[in-house]
Amino acid sequence: MPTIDPEAVVGSRITNQSLSRWLHSLPGVDKVGLEARTASLGTRSIKTASKAWALDMAIQMMDLTTLEGADTKERVRSLCLKAITPDPTDLTTPQPAAICVYGDMVKHAKDAIGKNKIHVAAVATAFPSGRASLPVKIADTKDAVNAGADEIDMVIDRGAFLSGNYLEVYKQILAVKAACVRKDGTRAHLKVILETGELETYDNIRRASYLAMLAGPDFIKTSTGKVSVNATLPITLLMLQAVKDWFDQTKIRIGVKPAGGIRTAKDAIKYLVVVKETAGEEWLTPKYFRFGASSLLNDVLMQRQKLTTGHYSGRDYVSVD
Amino acid sequence: MFDYSPAPESKDLVKFQASYGHFIGGKFTKPANTYSTINPATEQVLAEISHGAAKDVDSAVKAARTAYEKTWSKLNGATRGKYLYRIARIIQERSRELAVAETLNNGKPIKETRDVDIPLVASWFFYYAGWADKLDYAGLGANPRAHGVVSQIVPWNFPLMMLAWKIAPALAAGNTVVLKPAETTPLTALLFAEICQQAELPDGVVNIVTGFGDTGAMMVGHPDVNKIAFTGSTDVGRIIAKQIAGTDKKATLELGGKAANIVFEDAALDQAVEGIVNGIFFNQGHVCCAGSRLLVQESVQDVVIKKLKARMENIRLGDPMDKNTDIGAINSKEQLTKIDRLVKQGVKEGGQAWTPSCVIPKNGFWYAPTIITGVSPANTVVREEIFGPVLSVMTFRTPTEAVAKANNSQYGLSAGVWSEKGSRILKMADQLNAGVVWANTFNQFDPASPFGGFKESGYGREGGRHGLLSYLKGSN
Amino acid sequence: MRLEVKKTYKLFIGGKFPRSESGRIYIVNNHKGEFLANVAKASRKDVRDSVVVARSAQSGWAGATPYNRGQVLYRIAEMLEGRREQFVAEIRELTGKNEKQANQEVDSAIDSWVWHAGWTDKIDAVAGNMNPVAGPFFNISTNQPTGVVAAFAPQDSSLVGLVNTIAPAIVSGNSVIAISSETLPICAVTLAEVLETSDLPGGVVNILTGNASELGSWLASHLDVNAIDLEGTSNAAELEMLAAENLKRVIRKGSYSRAGAKGSLQHILDLMETKTVWHPKGH
After folding, report:
1. Which of B134, B183, B301, C219 has its CA 20 to 30 A from that of A255?
2. Residue A23 belongs to a domain
């Protein structure tokens, strides 16, 4: 897998000052212009064959998620069974990319998934707030990796970012990435959650994206889903622009995962349009784009059913999970 | 991989008559002396249209005069306003039908007529409806009077929207009108006539006469017309100005443009690229205020052109009735020929033309979005208005140079400035000789915002309180 | 003979129709002195709740585009026109006006609403401007709504007075707590029903029926109310003194006629604040 030399990208040794200079030299983002572009893409009309393709791809891109304090072994098992057989009335339905759970649920998920190709992703690093010491966050990560997690979704230290301590944010990502390395030398796949709702401005989100990408993760992810503003189309478009520019500059392709607040198939299809017309079709695969969602799956299944049967479906015709 | 399946809007939303007469004195006349109007995307005939002769123009002006003297000038502003509110509401109710009609007759994408043109038509009528009983606040003192009968001639690029820009303020101020739509795009004006009937607008307040340039000349020259309002080419604007010289007739003219879209190195680059695309490719570039000259600061030329080309690959050209189409048909064979000739001239003079990969449909009139680099202020494609999806690209080093190049034109309609620095934007706005300056945006229109040009882009403003003034006595 | 279903007259707070939290009512008679209805009698707690709701709704209403606000106000006029007969009947019952007079009042109320609707996107064109300061500065003055307005409708009008009290406040994006006429409250409740069916966000207009003197001091002294319109009060000077505590903007009784088919731009501006912004110009 290609790697970059961070010092070459930043143009000097990595210090807080050089990171700050580099990040603040990135082009600004005009909010009105960004949101207008996103709204315009939202008017694309995706029908018939392209709709069917998009619905299937949306399922394959899902990290089906349960992140509740009340999660139990049985709850996780039930969700895994849903991932394995999303629609029992239509066995051609594809499976989602992953199940996403808390670190201490990983072993239950692994047991339930068995030999199926669905990954188990674990949130780690004192998710969702990230407010704990680095050793605690590393231990959290290692527990999940040792339990068998295929993927780790970490959170950045937003306090450090907002107070301008970019070096701290960067070092933490590198440390978590190191903690993802298993005894056999392979590495758990790493997604870095920026928590865009707390960063608030699009300029901040662009800078956080670049800071995260510099540390070499597999994905950058919008949000934890646990705050009032989670994934939005403009934020995702902005992050897709960032990964596209990063690829042009470094030849390294990083994925994007919007998470939280994506509830309808219609929304999911809008995201796919944004991927296609911003980063490009190379990102239209679970390898480079995921949805962090839970209730989205049922809405997509009902839309799939409508395409097959020709009439509108209802809640009784999709399973609770 | 993710190809968008066809997503056509339904043609059945509108039903055209086989042939149309003029709309005079509240009624349609019998079709006479007809010609065909077509769909430029397919070249199919949509309807037969009457070519207005001297007697038709005379009849319309008489109807307008009678309506002015006997009815319209006797109504108070509140009542005039209520008629305009009714019209605005009916436009909203029939908005999908009007969008389809405009797309079929003009060739522009349904996405634009549905999301931009028709909503602006409705909002223009709503806005001016509210002025009708507030003329005391227009800035001309108490009880300003209307001019009387106004001849209005609108172009083919935004047929119904230009009609709204003309009729709404004219009626709000108390005038009656005779309006001629462009010869290639008469249909939405004729549907508008039906809307006037549905709104129970008194007979003769609005009259629609269809026809060609000769019809328009008669409307301008008619002795019983008090004011002219024209949107179209600078050449015709010049003719009109000469035609009314020495008379008492007032005129407002919205003419051509060759706007500079200026991108500084500290611009929000991705949004600037969107602004460039919007500036020249919206409405196939058939826009008087189109950002047809890109002035990009030399230090960011490469990254901007690279991003622009990548962005242009996502522009979808094709069937205007498909909801996913971004660029539709060129309005006429005549216009297509002109665009082609000018681009070829540009290349001959040393420019490099580039287009993204585009499948051009077999029938109809089409031109792929094009950028021409390596040109300078002396080149034809930099000086002349092409009125098509063609962008000429130049560079600059300093703000002073940008201003000099931007102002180096006989036109002065609009300009764009892209920078994250407020003081620079405001200084540029001061120095640019353009009637509309868009900073970090482009092609924004609102009935509350005055629009119009400097120099050979014409005089007078449309929109806002200023737009009302030109329809009242005591103002040009 | 068919038995009529009689209407219940409640308060209008936050887009809903609650009874007074005090449970009180008062009797309203028609012009002949016959029983007409038991109308909710608002209390200080209803006032308190209304201010909370009005404050919460205000930023959304002010944040809507002026075009959108104009559309909503025009729709209110559409709904008023549709309910004309009901208003005429109520005005006649309450005041004894004949059919022609009652229709004239309804005409004025509807037409005034239309007049106000047309102002939402024109205020700054007339009352805002660039300022030609002596320096390299962009300098502009605009008008923005003051916030939450407490307004007392004239006591002697059943409909048009209330319309000419509410409309000038909300045109610019304020929210309002309106106290209706005590003896002529019936149309106020029907007006509330019109507002509720007009796409007006809940909380932008709140209408309380009851005794203006009792409610007046609570509104005049409320620190989260930005402006007060004293038209329908009987102790205006005392209330103006209370209002001075947080420097509320005050519209004194008798400032503006409330009977016509038009309002006054100055009335609208009295409930707005001017903001002036400077920005240097230079490369």
Report:
1. B301
2. yes
**Nearest by CB: B2 against A37, A43, A53:** A53
> CA B448 from chain center: how many Å?
16
Residues of B in Cβ contact (< 8 Å) with A281: 1-2
pLDDT single digits (tens) C177-213: 999 999 999 999 999 999 999 999 999 999 999 999 9
B444 in contact with A, Cβ within 8 Å: no
Cβ atoms A305, A90 nearer than 8 A: yes
- Write the secondary structure of chain C as one string of H (helix), E (strand) and C (coil): CCCCCCCCECCEECCECCCCCCCCEEEEECCCCCEEEEEECCCHHHHHHHHHHHHHHHHHHHHCCHHHHHHHHHHHHHHHHHCHHHHHHHHHHHHCCCHHHHHHHHHHHHHHHHHHHCCCCCHHHHHCEECCCCCCEEEEEEEEECCEEEEECCCCCCCHHHHHHHHHHHCCCCEEEEECCCCCCHHHHHHHHHHHCCCCCCCCEEEECCCHHHHHHHHHCCCCCCEEECCCCCCHHHHHHHHHHHCCEEECCCCCCCCCCCCCHHHHHHCEEEEEEEEECCC
Cβ separation A33–B274 shorter than 8 A: yes
Nearest-angstrom CA–CA distance, A282 and A275 = 9
Catalytic positions of B are 254, 288
Cβ atoms within 10 Å of C28's Cβ, excluding its own: 19
Q: How far apart are CA C244 and CA C133, in angstroms?
A: 33
Joined together, the tokens standing for residue C108 give 């004025």
* β-strand pairing of C137-145 with C129-130: antiparallel
Q: Is A204 on the interface with B (CB under 8 A)?
A: no
Domain assignment of residue A239, given as a range:
19-308
Find out whether A117 and A129 touch, Cβ atoms under 8 Å.
no
pLDDT digits (tens, 9 = 90+) for B409-421: 999 999 999 999 9
What is the enclosing helix (H) or strand (E) of A232?
none
Give the separation between CA A94 and CA C151, rounded to whole angstroms.
62
* pLDDT reported for residue B442: 97
The count of structural domains within chain A is 1
Mean pLDDT value across chain B: 97
Amino acid sitting at position B267: A
Altogether, the residues listed in chain A come to a count of 321
Spatial distance between the Cα atoms of A201 and B412, rounded to a whole number of angstroms: 36
Q: What percent of chain C has a predicted confidence (pLDDT) above 90?
A: 99
Distance of CA C208 to the CA centre of its chain: 11
Say yes or no: A25 contacts chain B, CB-CB below 8 A. Answer: no
What is the CATH classification number for the domain harbouring A24? Answer: 3.20.20.70
Q: Is the alpha carbon torsion for B421, B424, B430, B434 positive or negative?
A: negative
In a domain, A314, yes or no: no
Say which amino acid occupies B81.
G
CB-hemisphere CA count at 13 Å for A220?
30
Q: Is residue A1 part of a domain?
A: no
Other CB atoms within 10 Å distance of the CB of residue B55: 10
Classify the phi-psi angles of B283: left when phi > 0, otherwise alpha if psi is within -120 to 50, otherwise beta.
left
Take residue B308 and report the two structure tokens written for it.
């622009």
Q: Judge if the upstream peptide bond of residue A2 is cis by omega within 30 degrees of 0.
A: no
pTM of the complete model: 0.95
Q: Do the Cβ atoms of C10 and C46 come closer than 8 Å?
A: no
Q: Which residues pair with B178 in a beta bridge?
A: B151, B207
pLDDT digits (tens, 9 = 90+) for A187-240: 999 999 999 999 999 999 999 999 999 999 999 999 999 999 999 999 999 999
8 A C-beta contact, residue B221 and residue B145: no
Q: Of C187, C179, C171, C159, give the one whose Cα is nearest residue C37.
A: C187
pLDDT of residue A1: 54
CB of B426 closer than 8 Å to CB of B380: no
C266: closest chain B residue by CA: B137
Q: Is residue A14 part of a domain?
A: no
Are the beta carbons of B40 and B365 closer than 8 angstroms? yes
A258-272 burial code (b ≥16 CB/10 A, e <16): bbbbbeebebbbbbb
